[in-house]
Amino acid sequence: MAAPEQQHELALEKFLDQRPELRIELDHLNPLLAQAKGETLAQFRDDRLHEAFEAEAERLGLFAWELTLQLTAATPEDYQAQRLEVHREVAQMAGMDWLEYCDLYGIQP
């Protein structure tokens, strides 16, 4: 599996490939808006892309990392396995019982 950063970049590219209207919008951002925020046009564009990605994840009822996995997993089964693995790690870091965590987030273990 690719490093998380590489995986996320791949997901962003796939996300844009599926939304040509968003790509056009991002390619025609007003440079004055970027300047007003103290950002380069590339930074401003990147921020808008991430906002759109996160909004789509929220619309789908997913965390952004879940959308990344969904867009980059080889199969639906691979997506589910990776998703559960990350959720297990989060539960461990939070010091939560796995079944309690699953119940809280509506996950089928």
- Principal-axes geometry comes out as elongated
**Biggest beta sheet summary:** none
Q: What distance separates the N and C termini?
A: 22 Å
SSE pattern, N- to C-terminal: HHHHHHH
Helix content: over 70%
Strand content is under 5%
Low-confidence stretches: none
Summed over residues and divided by their number, the pLDDT gives a mean of 95
Determine Rg (CA atoms, Å).
17 Å
Quantity of strands, as a count: 0
**Total domains, how many?**
2
Could you say which structural class the secondary elements and strand pairing correspond to? mainly alpha
Counting H and I runs of at least 4 residues, what is the number of helices? Answer: 7
Pfam families: DUF6388
InterPro entries: DUF6388
Protein name: DNA repair protein
List keywords for this structure.
2 domains; mainly alpha; 76% helix
The gist of it:
The protein has two domains: 72 residues, no CATH class; 35 residues. The chain contains seven helices and no strands.
Can you give a write-up of this model?
- The chain contains seven helices and no strands.
- By secondary structure, it is mainly alpha-helical.
